[in-house]
Write a structure and sequence with these properties.
The complex is a heterodimer of chains A (71) and B (143).
Chain A (H helix, E strand, L loop, with lengths): L35 E5 L2 E5 L8 H14 L2
Antiparallel strand pairs in A: 1-2
Chain B lengths: L1 E4 L1 H8 L6 H12 L5 E5 H13 L7 H11 L4 E3 L3 H13 L6 H13 L4 E3 L3 H4 L4 H4 L2 E2 L2
Parallel strand pairs in B: 1-2, 1-4, 2-3, 4-5
Helix pairs in contact in B: 1-2, 1-3, 3-4, 5-6
The chains are: A alpha+beta (71), B alpha/beta (143).
Chain lengths: 71, 143
């Protein structure tokens, strides 16, 4: 009579992702300080905590158009 | 000499971290302090500037700061206001060129430039302004 053996294979245990929503942090791009208004060459200039190449004029126009259209 | 700046130049001239800050600030400063140059902006430009710098939230510019910046700019600018006839001129120009959409805001700047009889209209949106016919195209300059 043959003997039946069972081999147990151990698998790595995956850690569950934290579901604590209160631990969410702001994205790295989110500014942490407010803008500072200075005078450079006698003219106003803002030092802003975050900037990119976003065309803010187009964004503002698009936002205003959406508001006008009630979207 | 009379020159007019639109909001695509005024906004970067106000934001040190903006990609176009150096060019915009240098051009604006050079004209502001040139005794032979009168600097103009349309009232609409100031409104667009306020709207844009306060509306783009990552910059965190408050309403009070934006008002302060406009106040600081005022002594260096002559502000051109548009009346009803000017707006009708803008609608006629848009219709005659079959233009639609947001280019109308550029047409408002263009009308202000023609009204002030400037010799140069500084903008980074040259491609939009050159669509507004030859009289406007002749004024367009990039900082």
């Amino acid at each position: 009579m043959s003997k039946v053996t069972t081999r147990v294979v151990s698998r790595p245990v995956k850690k569950k992702a934290s579901r604590n929503v209160f631990k969410r942090v702001a994205p790295a791009t989110e500014p942490r300080k407010p803008a500072v208004l200075k005078m450079v060459d006698g003219l106003p200039v803002f030092d802003v905590p975050y900037a990119d190449d976003t065309d803010v004029l187009e964004l503002a126009r698009a936002e205003r158009d959406k508001q006008i259209l009630g979207l | 000499m009379k020159v007019l700046f639109d909001s695509s130049v005024l906004i970067p001239s106000l934001i040190r971290q903006h990609a176009n800050y150096e060019a915009a600030h240098a051009c604006f400063t050079a004209h502001v302090y040139d005794d032979n140059t009168e600097v103009y902006a349309s009232a609409h430009t100031l409104a667009e500037t306020y709207s844009s710098i306060t509306g783009y939230r990552p910059w965190k510019i408050s309403a009070v700061q934006a008002k302060q910046a406009i106040d600081n700019l005022r002594p260096h600018l002559s502000v051109i206001t548009l009346n009803e006839d000017d707006y009708m001129w803008v609608f006629n120009r848009m219709a005659s060129l079959n233009l639609v959409g947001a280019v109308i805001y550029d047409c408002l700047h263009a009308r202000a430039a023609l009204k002030a009889e400037v010799t140069a209209l500084y903008t980074f949106n040259t491609k939009d302004f050159v669509r507004l016919s030859d009289d406007v195209q002749a004024l367009v300059r990039e900082p």
